[in-house]
Amino acid sequence: MSLSIDPVFHSADAASPRIEDHHGLDRWRELAPKQQPTYLDEAEVERVRSELSSVPPLIFAGEADLLKKRIADASRGEAFLLAGGDCAETFADATADKIRNRVRTVLQMAAVLTYGASMPVVKMGRMAGQFAKPRSSDEETRDGVTLPSYRGDIVNEHAFTPEARAHDPRRLLQAYHVSSSTLNLIRAFTQGGFADLRLVHEWNRGFLANNPNYHRYEQLAKEIDRALKFMDACGVDFEALRSVEFFAAHEALLLEYERALTRIDSRTGKPYDVSGHYLWIGERTRDIDGAHVDFLSRVSNPIGIKLGPNADPDTVLRLAEKLDPEGEPGRLSFITRMGAGVIRDRLPELLRTVAPQLPHVAWVCDPMHGNTITSATGYKTRRFEDVMDEVTGFFESHREAGTVPAGLHVELTGDDVTEVLGGSNEIDEEGLRRRYLTLVDPRLNHDQSLEMAFLVAEQLSAGS
Ligand SMILES: O=C[C@H](O)[C@H](O)COP(=O)(O)O
Ligand SMILES: C=C(OP(=O)(O)O)C(=O)O
Ligand SMILES: [Mn+2]
């Protein structure tokens, strides 16, 4: 990933709705956007909007274009996309250790998947901007007290007090600065030697040595070991494998934030949302005539759309027409999140009806959001076996339809949390109590993430 940020962005017309809006970047304001905060101090919002409109971009438009090329490769089956990270990043967890652990987990998974798929893996973090959460309910009640729901650190604080839960526009600025320092460290890690393939392989050996299911993964691990020794013997330049491309992704939910961080790229004259390389529209905000689809149709980044079990072919085709009228390779990905119980019913129909008309769109599996349950002990959780079953259903459906399974999008952390049931360490309902740290959805822990990578690598190599 290029580190140079060329002076190519004009922010002049990209900031305020009062200035002529050539690109329709403020049209969303007329479309009653869903899931937005309610700010009481409009003057403060205006100050924040104005400041965010003049801060340096977090990414360079050329990087977003490069990612489009990589996603186009994935849509053709010439690469595999791996996106992973927290459901909700927090300001408090933007520490060097936690960022390193997440990047390391994605790199470790990617190394295994690269071998399994015999293809490059496009690495992406739900990181450096994943701070805004859509919620099922506007309010939360505890012991008879009702307060606004937590909507992510960019909106309010998780603590259950009226002050903490108030929507504070200054958090938009804090989110920008935390994203900036997170992305800075990600760039340092991925360009500075931390991503060295030999190092990543050593970490994977360490994971396997301690894994109770070692025998399950032993064969693949030995093959990777031999492949690396073979590369070494052939004189492969491992120095060239010390840095990797790593892209930042988040849900484009808070349109005030995304709008203020949109700039005109002077190379092309087109608007780019420079808050992250890749932006997706969530299941709750993907209405065809809604504000989110309108806004994202006007920026040139690669875009994802979440598709739940109720997504019908006609809606999906209309979304594609609006968001990607030119059928630009890599512009659009469909992130399906159906649920293990229904993916084998719902996905094949979409693949049969939609995929032939949209051959340039990448189909990605989010096996998390359709598989959320509440444990008997009261935790919002997921079963590792359901998550894996959805992944298997995804590969089966694509195999049967003759279409390309282009990637995986998962909620994970690099730490040893106990939020998802199962995996080889057999976290059970009681075990959830030990280290349940997420503020919204349950994440795979480090070991569960790697187990997933080994299991997916098997499916990828079976399909190749
Ligand atoms: O991450 C996804 C959603 O924001 C999350 O699942 C919503 O959770 P809720 O149903 O608890 O509001
Ligand atoms: C909100 C999310 O997902 P979805 O829109 O698919 O529910 C998410 O990815 O955290
Ligand atoms: Mn989530």
UniProtKB/TrEMBL annotation:
Phosphoenolpyruvate binds at R126, E283, R284, K306, R337. Binds 1 divalent cation per subunit. The enzyme is active with manganese, cobalt or cadmium ions. Mn(2+) binds at C87, H369, E411, D441. Keywords: Amino-acid biosynthesis, Aromatic amino acid biosynthesis, Cadmium, Cobalt, Manganese, Transferase. Pathway: Metabolic intermediate biosynthesis; chorismate biosynthesis; chorismate from D-erythrose 4-phosphate and phosphoenolpyruvate: step 1/7. The keyword Manganese applies. Its EC number is 2.5.1.54. The keyword Cytoplasm does not apply. It comes from the Bacteria. GO terms for molecular function: 3-deoxy-7-phosphoheptulonate synthase activity. One of its GO terms (biological process) is aromatic amino acid family biosynthetic process. Its cofactor is Mn(2+); Co(2+); Cd(2+). It catalyses: D-erythrose 4-phosphate + phosphoenolpyruvate + H2O = 7-phospho-2-dehydro-3-deoxy-D-arabino-heptonate + phosphate. InterPro entries: Aldolase_TIM (IPR013785), DAHP_synth_2 (IPR002480). It holds the Pfam family DAHP_synth_2. Belongs to the class-II DAHP synthase family. NCBIfam families: DAHP_synth_II. This is Phospho-2-dehydro-3-deoxyheptonate aldolase. It comes from Sediminivirga luteola.
